[in-house]
Amino acid sequence: MVAQNGKDLLVKIDMTGGGLFETAAGLRATRISFNAESVDVTSLESTGGWRELLGGAGVKTASISGSGVFKDDATDERARQIFFDGETPNFQVIIPDFGTVEGPFQITSIEYAGSHNGEATYELSLASAGALTFTALI
């Protein structure tokens, strides 16, 4: 993969629960992280005392975070609604020249900040809440 423009890494929110995705407005920085828990099956018979892991086992998780400025009442309101209602709607993350990750996420935190001589900002953190799909770019 060649160098990409950071602004092209997009987080999209399902606005209606019916697959109408809109980019979370005003985000300046976004990040997605994938993790897989390992299951250690090392025993006295493990060759050379090396750790052995059970393939395909363990919990897979993904987390999304982003920060930015307020730009759009609709996506700001939807994010607040999702948080306060405890919903786990689908989100999409567009990874430039790679593909799209989609699935249910829970907003685990929303932070608001501002200074007297600057813009109001917000930060979002999301945790995967079910199976995710990946669609590669063709």
From TrEMBL:
InterPro entries: GTA_major-tail (IPR022344), Phgtail_TP901_1 (IPR011855)
Gene3D superfamilies xrefs: 4.10.410.40
Superkingdom per UniProt: Bacteria
Listed NCBIfam families: phgtail_TP901_1 (TIGR02126)
Protein name, UniProt field: TP901-1 family phage major tail protein
